[in-house]
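Re-run with default settings, no changes from the original entry. Doing this only to confirm the output is reproducible before filing.
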Amino acid sequence: MHMPIDKKLSKVDTLKTAIEYIHQLHAMIADAPNVSTAQPSHNPCITISTQDDPCAKLTISWHRKPMEYGSAFRDQMTGATKASCSKVWIPGV
């Protein structure tokens, strides 16, 4: 779903878009033919590649601090940590 930059979404539309995005990520991971998961360690990750474009890969990594819920990913181009979030609740799942 692409929205113009100057349009502000309502809270409901923002949540619907976020849920749709999460479902798309879940479908991509579930349907991926080549999924490799790192061994449990301090920095687990999942790498997904497809037969359509073997050069294109998606890597998702995460970490959790004791007593906190959070996730982050590292930008492969810059090496910078990009995001963290709290618990995610998906209605109906």
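Residues 10-93 form one domain. The chain has a mean pLDDT of 67.
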